[in-house]
From TrEMBL:
<dbReference type="InterPro" id="IPR002104">
    <property type="entry name" value="Integrase_catalytic"/>
</dbReference>
<feature type="domain" description="Tyr recombinase">
    <location>
        <begin position="1"/>
        <end position="162"/>
    </location>
</feature>
<keyword id="KW-0233">DNA recombination</keyword>
<dbReference type="InterPro" id="IPR013762">
    <property type="entry name" value="Integrase-like_cat_sf"/>
</dbReference>
<dbReference type="GO" id="GO:0006310">
    <property type="term" value="P:DNA recombination"/>
</dbReference>
<protein>
    <recommendedName>
        <fullName>Tyr recombinase domain-containing protein</fullName>
    </recommendedName>
</protein>
<dbReference type="GO" id="GO:0003677">
    <property type="term" value="F:DNA binding"/>
</dbReference>
<dbReference type="Pfam" id="PF00589">
    <property type="entry name" value="Phage_integrase"/>
</dbReference>
<dbReference type="InterPro" id="IPR011010">
    <property type="entry name" value="DNA_brk_join_enz"/>
</dbReference>
<dbReference type="GO" id="GO:0015074">
    <property type="term" value="P:DNA integration"/>
</dbReference>
Length: 185
């Protein structure tokens, strides 16, 4: 999701039982104009979409929703909208660039939040996801005949969520082997 889509995501547009979230056509993105924050339409008409989630992401999103009762999913402590500048300065920057006070090194120095969209697109390509499904997931439009005659199928959506779940599982530590105790006979 784009920054505005993520920070404008309303609880009402999360359907975790179905494993999806929706970018709403009228209030699906947070906008900041001259210091004022408001919900409005996303970037383009193609940005309005359902985004199917792998199980691990559904579980993580449920944790976020269970942690508060505000209408906006990703919000400040009292339900306020998140500002890009303060989020970048207070959270994103220290995580990716390292934090001397917390004694943490950089993850990927200089990385921007939008770079995650590029990474996601690259993973979709690596996983052999058809171009039409990549475009739909990212809220893009395929030009010309490819955009007119190509459609996303349930099987394509399932391939995306399975590939993302597999990537997640491959990063998780292996479960510890059970400890066997030898008893004297």
């Amino acid at each position: 999701m784009r920054w505005g889509e993520l920070t404008g995501l309303a609880r009402a547009n999360t359907h975790l039982g179905d494993g999806l979230i929706q970018v709403h056509p009228e209030v699906g993105a947070l906008h900041e104009v001259q210091g004022h924050l408001y919900l409005g339409p996303p970037k383009t008409a193609n940005s309005v979409r359902d985004i199917h989630l792998p199980p691990f992401l559904t579980a993580l999103l449920r944790e976020v929703l269970d942690s508060h009762d505000h209408d906006i999913v990703f919000c400040g402590a009292r339900g306020a909208f998140l500002r890009r500048s303060s989020m970048s300065r207070r959270v994103w920057g220290p995580v990716v660039n390292g934090n001397a006070r917390a004694h943490t090194g950089p993850v990927i120095e200089g990385m921007h939040l939008h770079d995650l969209r590029h990474t996601h697109k690259t993973w979709l390509i690596e996983d052999g996801i058809p171009e039409v499904a990549q475009a739909k997931r990212l809220g893009h439009r395929l030009p010309g005949v490819r955009g007119i005659y190509s459609h996303v199928t349930p099987a394509m959506r399932q391939r995306i969520t399975e590939a993302l779940q597999d990537r997640w599982l491959s990063t998780q530590p292996a479960p510890a082997a059970p400890v066997r105790h030898l008893h004297a006979a």
